[in-house]
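Sequence of ABC-2 type transport system permease protein (Microbacterium aurugineum).
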Amino acid sequence: MVALLVSLRWRQLGHQLSRNPWMIVTLVLTGMIALGMLAGLTAALVALRFAAPEAAVTVMVLAGTVLVVGWWVGSILVSGDDSLAPERFALLPLTAGALLPGLVVAGATTIGGVGTITALLLMLLGWSISLPALLSALILAPVAVVTCVLGARVVSGVLAGWLARRGTRDLVVILGVLLVASSGLLLNLGMGALFRVNDIGGAFTAVTDIVGWTPIGAVFGVSASVAQGDYLSAALRLLIALATVIALWFAARGLLAARLVAPIQNSGGGRVRSGGLLDRVLPATPTGAIAARTLRYFRRDPRQVVNIVMMLLLPAIFIGLALMNGLQDESVGFGPALTLIPTINALLTGTIIQMAIAYDNDAIAAHILGGVRGAQDRAGRLLGFGLIAVPLTLVLCVATCLLAGRMDLLPGSLGSALGLTAISAGAGAWVGSFLPGRAPAPEANPLGRGSSGGVQSLLAMIVIGPITLFVGAPALGFAIAGIWNPALGWVSLACGVVLGALALWGGTVLGGSILNRRWPEVLAEVASES
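Predicted 3D structure, token representation.
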């Protein structure tokens, strides 16, 4: 059974790679990034091993604990994409006891599992400060891997019923995005608090001692105690580590057995209501219908809700960082530059428009069968997005000008933000016609495979970014110059409106003409399950 499930997992991956060449490129790029991170980890461990041997023990325990927590928390985000979910075996004559070992080994031999095993082996460099610690870490490496995999299965199994509800899934996704996007701000707060501690090394050592006695860090605390020559503590921590694995094993088996006889089914999002005022305001044309549907997506679809949340959160993070670091003080001179922060949303806008078709998945076939022209599709999506983006940008520009105490810079702030956002949207409408990107299918995990658009979106950003900066240079340049001469802000606003309108027109016409020729290819790309 173990060999069967492992081979099944890898055959599924091979099938996906054979059907989607873009996934091969994604895998290669991801592998290169992972290798770079592992190389950095190796360099850091070697430096710690010889420069600060005592600190190496602390780093090993904390790094290992973060690894375990990453597995457990990450299981919530990827549970919807589990190709070996228990429900897939519910109709087969299999027991949880026979199935669980194969699922554990299959989980440990995924790409993430192989990366974890590699990281644990590299961590042996840090444990080499002591031969007994090195041997104990080598022996307990499988226990650490099993702790990661079993814990992930238990966490996802306990929350499976809760996550099966549409509202709960959407809330978890939005909170997860908020947490990830705010990581820089949280790190800044943490570093500020850390610098206020008199003895930083002592604080980390105290945390390590505590973590080493917990289920998530005991397996690494054993080697730490052995390195310090405290074999009694090492024995007690070993008991905690083994007890954790045993408890997780029985919990995972019980949850698996329950799901084999009572499969969990995802629930929908509730009753769909008519558009009402929205349908009456927008024109009764294909463009108006697509715009109305786009607005509904931004309200109902968690994948689209995340995009709007990020357009509010990203400027807020930069504003928060500026205020926390005192950059708005007159002595620093950064205060007026706060008015340019809303312009950063242009980075998100291009990707949102570029991936608009990908979010439709195979439902885009309705456009093809209904005879919708490419220009109508592009114009409708731009109109729907603009009805949200323009008011949001106005609010952000006014808010940043109030924070900076420079309402006279509002024209330049609007010119830069609206201009570059419109240019980025137009470029995204054009690029999205031949690089539509990848998005999770409807009802799938919004943070699962394809959530970032894949390699196509990476290539699209490489194209959209320079276009936005080049075409929008006058609007941005005059907005910056307006900090010293506010009258130039009106020039920025005029440039932003004119250049933005031209970019939207160009994106609609050029992107629409490409779509008219490529509708079948676009449908095949966005509807592919691989």
